[in-house]
TrEMBL record:
Annotated source species: Sphingorhabdus lacus
Keywords of the record: NADP, Oxidoreductase
Descriptive protein name: dTDP-4-dehydrorhamnose reductase
Cofactor list: Mg(2+)
Domain RmlD-like substrate binding: 4-285
Family note: Belongs to the dTDP-4-dehydrorhamnose reductase family.
Length: 288
């Protein structure tokens, strides 16, 4: 496997990739922001020049979807420009880049799960900047794996599961959007998939989707989280389903975030567990 640069290791996904890589024949370089500021192209180039690398896994992203609407310059620097620079440097060295992207490149109007080659049409700044990063990587001609995912959950950090548990402890009733549907996905499962791709990429290049199996609305996901959390002594609040129109946000969300994973299973043999099993494992770790 050699030595790979992993960006974003202070975040949930990058941290999980770094942790899981310890069990593999896989040496990783995890620069701090002072060592590699992703908003500074010169810093990216200088940091990579100082390392003998065999590949890059880019887990870093500006993920504040609503804040991106008023912070477009920084969002584009991290989500669009930084992947472009990383890919250019990889192309210069003839090494591959694995880049994690998002369901937000789609507009959510399709009535079935999105395939990798479906037309893209992001609804907001976050999705637009992530798509810019994807396109910049492809334009360099570098060997790449762009891995789109959605609805990430983790035992720690800020995500829907930890937010629900926090709000459930503060309020007797929660109103949850019920008309957006997606595939709840474990950060740990995604990290494992990314490392499997790194091990098996060889001469392959392209775009793949990874999510846990099965679908749910945010309301259905919240209901399952609280039902399972009762085993750990959590008192479930009353949950009320509401439409998206009753919960306005600065950024529009895709109504359908479901992603098809057949291509990933075919090319890498990666079969994800159900989102319910993933949530069970996340809750066990959260309350451990």
């Amino acid at each position: 496997m050699g030595r790979w640069l992993v960006t974003g290791t202070t975040g949930q996904l990058g941290g999980a990739v770094a942790e899981l890589s310890q069990d593999l024949d896989f040496e990783i370089f995890c620069p701090t922001r002072s060592e590699m500021d992703l908003s500074d192209p010169d810093a990216i180039r200088a940091s990579m020049a100082a390392q003998n690398l065999d590949g890059v896994i880019n887990c870093a992203a500006y993920t504040a979807v609503d804040k991106a609407e008023s912070d477009a310059e920084i969002a584009h620097a991290v989500n669009g420009t930084a992947p472009a620079i990383l890919a250019e440097e990889c192309a210069r060295r003839s090494i591959p880049i694995i880049h994690v992207s998002t369901d937000y490149v789609f507009d959510g109007t399709k009535q079935a799960p999105y395939d990798e080659d479906d037309p893209v049409n992001p609804l907001g700044i976050y999705g637009m900047t992530k798509l810019a990063g994807e396109n910049a990587i492809r334009a360099t001609g570098v060997q790449h794996a762009i891995v789109r995912t959605a609805w990430l959950l983790d035992p720690k950090g800020r995500n829907f599961l930890t937010t629900m548990l926090r709000l459930g402890g503060e309020r007797d009733e929660l109103q949850i959007v019920s008309d957006q549907v997606g595939n709840p996905t474990s950060v740990g499962d995604l990290a494992q998939a990314v490392l499997t791709i790194a091990q098996q990429l060889r001469d392959k290049s392209g775009t793949w989707h990874f999510v846990n199996q099965g679908e749910a609305s945010w309301f259905e996901l919240a209901a399952y989280i609280f039902k399972q959390a009762e085993k750990f002594g959590v008192r479930a609040p009353q949950l009320t389903p509401i439409p998206t129109t009753s919960y306005p946000t600065p950024a529009r969300r895709p109504a359908n975030s479901r992603l098809a994973t057949r291509k990933l299973a075919r090319d890498f043999g990666i079969e994800a567990q159900s989102w319910q099993h993933a949530v069970d494992s996340i809750l066990e770790e959260h309350f451990r």
